[in-house]
Amino acid sequence: MLKHLAGRLAEALVALLLMSLVIFLLSRVIGDPVALLLSDSATEADRQMLIAQLGLDQPGWRQYLTFLGNALQGDFGQSVTAGREDALHLVLSRLPASLSLAGIALLFTLVVGILLGVLAAVTRGTVADLAVRLLALLGQSAPSFWLGIMLIYLFAVKLGWLPTSGLGGAVYYVLPALTLGLFTLAAITRLVRASMLEALGSEYVKLARIKGVSEWAVVLRHALGNSLIPVVTFMGTFFATMITGAVVVETVFAWPGIGRLAYESIMARDFPVIQTVVLVITAFFILANLIVDLLYLAIDPRMRARS
Amino acid sequence: MTDPLLSIRGLTVRVGKRSDAPSILDEVSLDLMPGETLGLVGESGSGKSTLGMSVLRLTSPTLTAGTSGRIAWKGQDILTMPNRKLRHIRGEEISMILQDPMASLNPVQSIGTQLKEALRRGGKRNLSAAAEAALAEVNIPSPAERLRAFPHQMSGGMRQRIVSAIGLAQDPELLICDEPTTALDATIQYQFLELLKALRAAHHMAMLFITHDFGVVARICDRVAVMYAGRIVETGPVAEIFSRPAHPYTKALLASVPSTSHAPHRLPVIEGAPPAVGHRPQGCPFHPRCAAASAHCRHAPPRTELRPGHTLNCWHPQEHPHEIA
């Protein structure tokens, strides 16, 4: 068990290292940082000085090692925008807003998605099932930027029930979390419905019914535990959907998180910040997958035996 | 004469509600006496498992909607009984062992959890002690440890014994066994049948034993009902059916059982395949494959009682004695 975890951690470190290399290469290929940093009135001498100052006259592998060494010490460089803010500090300051939004969206998605999926499976073939399936289909087909705008129009502009954008109290979370979570909510609903139907038709559920167990206990005690296994499997993917979705949703709702920071820094070609955002997201992604692994061990005894 | 424990009359199971929907079971009637073991024999698709499932109302919703007739358990009709009442019959009075031991235990629950759930319903107080005793009764070594184990850690034979322990946890009066030995190795099959016989004696149970294997019937059953295409074609005491089968289908089935006492020879086969649900012929369903068939056979065959307890539905009963090894 501990050995298994140690192995996964080692894999995670390798993944982070590879990611840092990819980011390093991409940022060198995409643009010339010197051209970005120099002012319009700079001379050739200024240019040479900046190149030497940034270490760009060094060979590529040395530049990478320097980048890696600095990154390990928490130095990801400074933002190229006016404030010259420390890149890591900037990203970390935006992180809580994103994490709280994604966390709320994921929680809401899981609870409602599992409930709807179970409801649809238990009432298979009825109007309730049809309604849930239709909702899930819509949720998976509506693009989130459009959905976000529609929600703002309806609930904020027309009805005036909720704020249009920005971060404040609990009410500010409703629309962005809904927009961010709807796709995943639909995915979880469909997944739970399908795996629940499979479990309800299984032999062990038949055996539970033979014992005389009530229908409630059959659904909750026997079928649900098994049908959550695929949900756990897809948790990593759902988390990724939340992160990529955050770029769009945070932009639409002017949410001060790393998704919008990523968007802004791409627009400003602020490479140090882009690099930091991508590395931080990668780290969270790896962490999420580690948590999924642990959840697996908790939910499925067959996995405990294998690891 | 005592009343039958289970009495099925005119049981028809269709795929859906409509009266012209294809049927899986056609007008099946049978009686089971207390303590008696009745074998239900037939090929795959003959409807024997559906019959077993219908007794506990465990068929799929489509089939439940298309079920008609009467299944009387101690005089009460299971088909029209409210769910609440049915739940008390399930497990407590009628229990069942399923065919596939690899699939019939919940993979994410420990053996103890699954067994205790049944024991608790059976009103047992000291669940841990009762669970250990239940496992010991089905010859599971070191039961205390096994209670904490999960199904994937056990062999098929062991799982099937655990399924039996769960089936017997509430001390039922009838145990339906749906091909419980089919998925087991030959040597384990024998052991398991011996265990079932011992359990039957200890619990004074009746049994409805569904199988396609006449060897199993000979070992464990008192009476046998032969099914073909959703109907019972012949029924009688095991010894009588084995020595004097009268339905052409029963004769052909028995003739195709391999024997060790005869010199090796090519086993006779029944030409063709059983008709699929929805494509069953008029009259006797076996007539297209039957050597003795005549024009009469396109009409529903009469029910004949050859000897007390030995009945068949056939226009041309085969009366000559049949040699069986």
From TrEMBL, chain A:
Keyword Transmembrane found: yes
The ABC transmembrane type-1 domain, residue ranges: 95-296
Keyword Transmembrane applies: yes
InterPro entries assigned: BPD_transp_1_N (IPR045621), MetI-like (IPR000515), MetI-like_sf (IPR035906)
CDD domains (UniProt xref): TM_PBP2 (cd06261)
Transmembrane segments: 99-122, 134-155, 170-192, 228-253, 273-299
Location within or outside the cell: Cell membrane
Keyword annotations from UniProtKB, A to Z: Cell membrane, Membrane, Transmembrane, Transmembrane helix, Transport
Membrane topology reported for the UniProt record: Multi-pass membrane protein
GO biological process, one term: transmembrane transport
GO CC terms: plasma membrane
Gene3D superfamilies referenced in this protein's UniProt entry, alphabetically: MetI-like (1.10.3720.10)
Family, as annotated: Belongs to the binding-protein-dependent transport system permease family.
Name the UniProt record assigns to this protein: Glutathione transport system permease protein GsiC
Native source organism of the sequence: Pseudooceanicola marinus
Lineage of the species this protein comes from: Bacteria, Pseudomonadati, Pseudomonadota, Alphaproteobacteria, Rhodobacterales
Name of the gene: gsiC_8
Automatic annotation (TrEMBL), chain B:
SUPFAM superfamilies to which the protein is assigned, alphabetical: P-loop containing nucleoside triphosphate hydrolases
Alphabetized UniProt keyword annotations: ATP-binding, Cell membrane, Membrane, Nucleotide-binding, Transport
CC annotations in GO: plasma membrane
Record's subcellular location: Cell inner membrane
Matches recorded under PROSITE patterns: ABC_TRANSPORTER_2 (PS50893)
Primary location recorded for the protein, binned into one broad class: membrane
Any GO MF annotation of the entry: ATP binding
Gene3D superfamilies: P-loop containing nucleotide triphosphate hydrolases
Domain ABC transporter: 8-254
Pfam families in UniProt: ABC_tran, oligo_HPY
Source domain of life: Bacteria
Membrane topology designation: Peripheral membrane protein
CDD domains: ABC_NikE_OppD_transporters
InterPro entries in alphabetical order: AAA+_ATPase, ABC_Ni/Peptide_Import, ABC_transporter-like_ATP-bd, Oligopep_ABC_C, P-loop_NTPase
GO biological process: peptide transport; transmembrane transport
Similarity field: Belongs to the ABC transporter superfamily.
Protein's UniProt name: Oligopeptide transport ATP-binding protein OppD
Organism: Pseudooceanicola marinus
Gene, per the UniProt record: oppD_7
